[in-house]
Amino acid sequence: MITVSLMTPTVPFANDLADVMRVFWGGIELRINQPGGDVTVTHREETSDGLRHCEMVMTGRFAASASRSAALGPDELLDKRYHKRLIKQTLYDVMKQATGRTPPWGSLTGIRPTRLIYEAMSRGLSLEEAARETQILFDVRSDKAELLRQIVAVQQEIAPPRMQEVDLYVGIPFCVSRCAYCSFLSGEVGKGRQLPPYVEALEKEIQGTLALIGEKGLTPRAFYMGGGTPTSLSAALLERVLAAADPFIQRAREVTVEAGRPDTIDRDKLQVIRDHGATRISVNPQTMHDQTLERIGRRHTTAQTEAAYALAREMGFSHINMDLIAGLPGENLDMFLETLSWSRSMHPESLTVHTLSIKRSSLLHLWEAQLPDGGMVEKMVEAGRQEAADRGMRPYYLYRQKYMAGNLENVGYALPGHECVYNIDMMEEVGHVMAVGAGAISKRVDPERGRIERAPNVSEISQYIDRMPEMLERKQALWREAWR
């Protein structure tokens, strides 16, 4: 691990600069305005004539320098955005010079790169012009810029949420076992003692939230039940949760329930999900290789995945999503290609190809020696893109995370007409979300003003059970006052 001494006058942006360095070096130890690192990055800047001038010089184990200038923003909010962009791009120039590397996403470190396309289009550029501008300004590789163009083109076919529409998210933070790559604060089911009190609290929060939706004159758009693993609940508990949400579900244009783990799926649970109007479920094997599944703590088999798909098809589910992960420990390109080929036999209507992200709160750092390198993972991701295209699927949403193998991305693909509206709303942050359950985050969005306000629920399960009325109050406060 490289120790970096960052000598900067803009301490609030230090973490953003660290993100740029991690793109090139992976893990770093950052010292802010403290000398003595393996590498020292000295940042200087000044303003004159409406311009901000930025210079960065790297010394020590690596040596490089770069400078850029950019106009000041017309208001405080935009100036902060332009300022951060300027110093990140200047450091990117330094890192690229020092390492000789050009990352696939260039200087971008944000979660939602499609926003840059929409931002450019709001200034009157065509979709093609916006993709080209993003490629040039941020040094994005041409195939990634084209991916963004394709995604936005598909999204433009889907009506955006109206100001009075709202999505409802129901979180089930339980799993039958913890996956090694998981960074969510989910609880293992164990003996199931927390499940009934959690569902009781969740029912009450759903009822209060639906009352708030009615009070504010909001109309249902999409329903999404995620986790964790919703099907870690028994059929009876699953029935209680979905029954509480029925007034919303019956009016929603889309209803998704993540079945998730194949080892939690049975006929009774699927019948409950189907009876309550689910239009889309997700059954996620991640890989077809049983030895990998055991290694990462999934505790299910390829045979169980195949049985779950067969049962869901038998029961009439016509839209099933499948998640796969590129870059799992011990896997190589041939193994990922085998998984892609195997997944084809179950004919999912949508396919999400994730790139492995190693979070500090996960257990996967224990397997780092067995992880495929970034170059191999990139070939896996490209193979996933080609497989989806061969099946007639189109990319429709994308997001990126920190610590992703190869500095790559997660992409959702779908057959035309099978795009998940909720996923688009969430990733692009264009619609309101009422969220219930431990760790769920409600959002109120004003896309015209670029304004988003959030109301998070507590994540720890027992605290959520005890403090549920407070979580409902947070949502009520979020909607209490009209925006000015």
Provide the gyration radius in Å: 23 Å
CATH architecture of the largest domain: Alpha-Beta Horseshoe
Return the CATH topology of the largest domain.
Answer: pyruvate-formate lyase- activating enzyme
Strand proportion, as a percent range, falls in 15-25%
**What ranges have pLDDT less than 50 throughout 5 or more consecutive residues?**
none
Number of strands: 18
- Which overall shape is indicated by the principal axes computed on the Cα atoms? globular
How many domain regions? Answer: 3
Q: By CATH's scheme, which homologous superfamily of the largest domain applies?
A: tm_1862 like domain
- The number of helical runs is 14
Provide structural commentary:
The structure is a single chain. With about 475 residues, the chain is α/β, with parallel strands linked by helices. It has three domains: about 1-100, Maf protein (Alpha-Beta Complex); about 105-155; about 165-445, tm_1862 like domain (pyruvate-formate lyase- activating enzyme, Alpha-Beta Horseshoe). It is built from 14 helices and 18 strands. The chain has helices at about 15-25, 75-100, 115-120, 125-135, 140-155, 195-215, 235-250, 265-275, 290-295, 300-315, 335-345, 375-390, 420-430, 460-480; strands spanning about 1-5, 30, 40-50, 50-60, 65-70, 165-170, 175, 185-190, 220-225, 255-260, 280-285, 320-325, 350-355, 395-400, 410-415, 430-435, 440-445, 450-455. The strands form four sheets. It has a nine-stranded mixed sheet, sandwiched between helices. Strands 2-1-3-4-5 form a five-stranded mixed sheet, with helices on one face. A two-stranded parallel ribbon has the order 7-8. α1 runs parallel beside α2, α3 (about 115-120) crosses α4 (about 125-135) and α6 (about 195-215) runs parallel beside α7 (about 235-250). It is globular. The N and C termini lie far apart (about 50 Å). The mean pLDDT is about 90.
